[in-house]
Automatic annotation (TrEMBL), chain A:
This is Putative ABC transport system ATP-binding protein. CDD domains: ABC_MJ0796_LolCDE_FtsE (cd03255). Keywords: ATP-binding, Nucleotide-binding, Transport. Pfam families: ABC_tran (PF00005). One of its GO terms (molecular function) is transmembrane transporter activity. It comes from Povalibacter uvarum. It comes from the Bacteria. Gene3D superfamilies: P-loop containing nucleotide triphosphate hydrolases. GO terms for cellular component: plasma membrane; transmembrane transporter complex.
TrEMBL record, chain B:
Its main location: membrane. Keywords: Cell membrane, Membrane, Transmembrane, Transmembrane helix. The keyword Protease does not apply. One of its GO terms (molecular function) is transmembrane transporter activity. It comes from the Bacteria. The chain crosses the membrane at residues 21-44, 313-338, 362-382, 402-422. PANTHER family: ABC-TYPE MACROLIDE FAMILY EXPORT SYSTEM PERMEASE COMPONENT 2, MEMBRANE COMPONENT OF TRANSPORTER-RELATED. One of its GO terms (cellular component) is plasma membrane. This is Putative ABC transport system permease protein. It comes from Povalibacter uvarum. The keyword Membrane applies. It is a multi-pass membrane protein. Residues 317-432 form the ABC3 transporter permease C-terminal domain.
Amino acid sequence: MLHMQNISKVFRTELIETHALRDFNLHVKEGEFVAVTGPSGSGKTTFLNIAGLLETFNSGTYQLDGQDVSRLSDDDRSRIRNQKIGFIFQSFNLIPDLDLFDNVDVPLRYRGFNAAERKKRITESLELVGLASRMKHIPAQLSGGQQQRVAIARALAGTPRFLLADEPTGNLDSLMARQVVDLLEDINRRGTTIVMVTHDPELARRAHRNVHVMDGQVTDLQPFAAKPLIRPEAVAAGV
Amino acid sequence: MFNYYVRLALKSLRRTPVVAALMIGAIALGVGVCITTLTVYRLMSGNPIEHRNDVLRAVTLDNWDPNQPWDDRRPELPPYELTYRDAMALFESDIPSRQVMMRKGPFVVESDPALGVKPFLVEARLTTKDFFSIFDVPFEYGGGWDAAADQGAQRVVVLSKETNDKIFGGQDSVGKNVRLDGKDYNVIGVLAEWTPTPKFYDLNNGSFDGIEEAFVPFNIGQIDQVQPGGNVNCWRTQPLNSFQDFLESDCVWIQYWVELKGRDKVEAYQSFIDSYVQEQKKLGRFERPLNNKLRTPEEWLEINRVVASDNSVLVGLSFMFLAVCLLNMIGLLLAKFLGSAPLVGLRRALGATRQTIFNQHLVEVGVIGIAGGVLGIGLAGLGLLGVRQLYENYDTLTRLDVTMSLTALVIAIASGVLAGLYPTWRVCRVQPAAYLKTQ
């Protein structure tokens, strides 16, 4: 699904060069749930931005879903982001003056779906995160956990094959964080590949695989630990 | 997507109401000033007889002072009007298919006492019969007079719509009588609404005045010795002891127009007036070099400088003012758009292309332009009202019609888009990754 080989990313200013990634290699199989950990400044977010085609890189090759995306135009990258990738951000990144329906609608508009198709997808994805009854509310009327679930619904509405989550529980308390991770596990179980950047080792342990990044390189690849994909309490909670 | 962009634009404007109000106000002010000056300029510079430009000619002969031109600043120009005797002589020509000599004159109008209208003074046009046909003058009732009425100075009158409304309450008054200067005139026609602006056929007596209130045969002026109602220009001292002396003087005060269909006719008539002046030279008149001109209405409006240069300058200044307003708007738009860069970054992350972002923001500046245009039309209306208050003669000029209202909208939208191009381009360059952490 995701294959990065010898990726390097250098940020340059007039005074300084920063090697955010150097010879970065990672292979994520379809259906995997991978957690990326590492200290601040290690290159996790740069990796995620490159993986999500939000940023270009200086050297190396990157194949996404079998397609070489190393040298795509800006428009092509936008198109792939829209069709194949879903994003979940630490600070939710919902548009404050749009209601939940319109927030989830944003990527679908750019995808060119007709009104009926958009409505169906929005309703289904909001139902999946348990917020269909609140689709006319604006984000400020929701709790942090609910807002993150809306962001997940937005990411899922376009049925992406690949979900990128950047500290998805960073702004949530432990209970809400657990609900969000339960939801991600559920999504993964339905076949969506997930790469999640996190600082939280507890959260990382819930993934199939834990990738540790240090100084812009992958330093440790922990294999999938034998554990249930879905926690029993999540099933009981109905999420 | 267009409707979606409009919805986003309205939400965006509501998000920053003060900035939105400032931008809309800036465009409205600029457009309002531009449309005010443009409206006056457009009406001043219009040619109300454009459809007859090819066949109509204003006739001018240079009978002026041999030592000094008619206009020191433009010595090539002959006087704008003719002497009575020259006009009468030219009227003998059968080269023009139609021709008209005319002038203004004051009359006191009295009507049937039963109508209860007090006597009042009018400016009448004393003219030959072709006035109505040569200038396509529209009639509400009846029509003009014939050659016999001209020759016999018959006491017939054509009333303007306004006069007919005043005396007869707008009823068909053809066949009824009115008294002009104590004599009965039979009403043979009533004009429909007719407001040629500028009043091309007589630019020397109030270019932007309304039309005359009554029209009577030219020769009545001589028989009743009706004093000239407009400008009379003389270049030498002559004894004017009687009205007849005045008619035979070298004073110019008669307007003269001919209809010449085809180049041959124009050349033949030019040759005719040149020959006439050559003959007059032998009699000791027309001491200046031969300088007889036939002007199309367009040329006539041009040489008469109906549009004062001040007015052109004013239009230029108003557009400069609009440019200043737009510069302010560019600053405000830059601040607004770059302030919303995190949202743009988010939309880019969710799949919006640069073109999509560009279109979205262009629609937003278009919406600002439309709002500014609508407000600008209101301001232009107020501006024109102010002009009307200041200059009574400009009453007919200061109307905001559909064309100018649409022009205001087009200018406003174009201005908005123009001002929005750079801020829109800047916001399209936003790198999505740079803002996603900070949103």
